[in-house]
Amino acid sequence: MELRLIEAVLPKEKKEDIQNLLSKETVVDFWREEIFENKVIFKILVDATLSEELINKLSRKFSKDERFRIVSIDVKTTVPLSEETSKTKHIRVSIPELYNAIVSSIEINYIFITMIILSTIIAAFGLYKNSGTIIIGAMVIAPLLAPNIAVSFATVLGDIELEKKGVMAFLIGCIIALLLSMALGFFLHIDVNNFEIKSRIAVNYPDLIIAFASGIAGTLAFTTGQMMGLVGVMVAISLLPPLVNTGLLVSNGFLLYATGSFLLFLANFASLNLAGVLTFLFQGVKPRKWWEEKKAKEHRIKAIILWMILIVILIFAIFAEKKILVKKRLFQESNIYYLKK
Question: Where, by residue number, does the polypeptide cross the bilayer (predicted)?
Answer without folding.
Answer: 108-128, 134-157, 169-190, 202-222, 229-250, 262-282, 303-320
